[in-house]
Amino acid sequence: AFQRFAMPLSRTINSLGAVYFDHGLIRLRKVAFDRYYFTDLDSEFIVSDKDVLVDPTGKEFSIPTGFELVSYSDGILLLKKGENEYRYYTYKSTWLVDRTYSDASPFLEGVAVCCNNEGLYGVINNKGETVIPFRYDYISNISSGIMAAYSQSKGWTVFEKLAK
To answer: What's this model's pTM, rounded to 2 decimal places?
Structure first.
């Protein structure tokens, strides 16, 4: 089998980390394929296709066993295990927090929206600290420092990221 690196198939939020080096790592697709030669036809068949992080020399960053890479931004990997177990892992090979989430988004502007196992959304910062409590039914991703959160009991709330 032959291997090569390629860009992500899509340009969604989960493709973050694919166009630039972030903390010395870049996100790429590692595609393994076999090549078959027929009379006048040269064909390639993909054997495996997975997302990996590599350093400038091409060395792969080790992702914990059983997890797949969902996204990479701000030096933090969003990893998924099974159907709905998400965890954050740092480029220093440590878990950002000791808990799992049933849903999670990549880090943007230093914060990430995630959902606890009770189905409530909150926001954590890139130190793993909760900055918006887990009591909302929905929270948008941050854009230009603004987030919108919805709670069935209280309606909509808008949050603005402030500089320290």
So the answer is: 0.85
